[in-house]
# Entry
Amino acid sequence: MKGKVVKLLMVFIMTFSIFTGFMNKNTYTQANASDNYLTNIKKKGTIVMGTAPDYPPYEFTKNEGGQAKVMGADIELAKQIAKNMGVKLKIKSMSFDSLLVALQTGKVDMVIAGLTRTPERAKSVDFTIPYYNGGQSLLINSNDSSIKSYKDLANQPVGVQTGSTQYNLVKKQVKNPSIKGMESVNDLVLALKTNKVKAVAVESATGEAYAANTQGIKAIDAKFNTAKAQNVVAFHKGATSLVNAANKTIKASNESHEFVDKFIPTASKEMGTSAKKQKISVWQQMYNYKDYFIKGTEYTILISIIGTILGLIVGILLALMRLSKNKFFHAIAVAYIEFIRGTPLMVQIMFVYFGLGTIVNVPALTSGIIAVFINSGAYVAEIIRSGIESIDDGQSEAARSLGFSNHQTMQIVVLPQAIKNILPALGNEFVSLIKESSIVSIIGVTDLIYQLRIVQADTYQGVVPIFIVMVIYFILTFGISRLLGLFERRLRHE
# Structure
């Protein structure tokens, strides 16, 4: 039977790979034959920009009337590109290392995120001409006088953003570095302040922004052996019409020095400031962002509740299929359960959002919910199966002797007793689901973790927002555990 399950899994994976490969190949063939990208964008009336808003002054978030507004020099350039195309700009935020994947799978139309051109990236996407030439800096602790350039980081832990140009610079030029790659610059700065890394490599303008607003750190010239970083806009491979249209805007901006003389200075003035500069306490600053935490909590609860309900339905169905004498249904259930339990939830979320995005466009929130209940269903199925198998066979035999059908026996006799037995395990699954749902933030779902990143980026506070989110998660999980415990005790008395 195990051999059949493995074969079934292999057939499923191969079929999906061939189908997806065909779709991608067909898409690229059409794109190369006839570039209708700009025409389609104009028909749609909107161009979607992907960015990671934790890189001031290029892109960052600011609290305006309780709403998180993405701002920055790159945003102003994107507005100008959209205006010249005659369309509206829509901004979609996600982690930096997911941006090019989002572009390739059609989730966004262009990426502007302090991105630089590399030969590897150029194989997957198309780039515009450079719109800004920036230098490279190192963020170090203010009392650290041992670091003068990248050469002093030999054999030292260095923080860099995953997938960034700085990651490659450190890897190639620093002697034997211990690279600590993270998705968020905010996390890297926190790692620096807590002495987890010796320095953080960032672009010069970003380094100056963090140094000016974060107590205890400073920015120095990294002195890497390279030309200045050239920031570019990325488009889908083959989208020559969009590249040409954007190049016209960038060329005009370069000629007038608009990005350097206007966009960056304006963004620097608009950036959020630390509590110290605002002359308020950190807790008062956090209170000003209460709406962010409330919104994140609402989304976390929504995803958890829907994921639990649908996961329970899927779990019951899979458990019955696995217990079925029908070999086909049994094999399907086993393959599903083993495959889902054998892969991380993060990978499943990215597959649903980006992988299935090559076939059908699924919104981020919907993708997160789908991945969560698909994952939960596999674990719930095993919990329910163990509960059903814990019921003595005599119960089923007695029910059938009274004239009950197999369906009635399962529905009236077995399942009610099994649910009593497995309620604690189901409760634990629900509590775990609340915590695990935090992973959906990687695709831009505005849950608690996503809002945490926004607050960190806007306030330059690292630890306090984390503490607040920890408390919120504890209140949610502890409260649900108490309610489930009360319900369990009532069932025992019945």
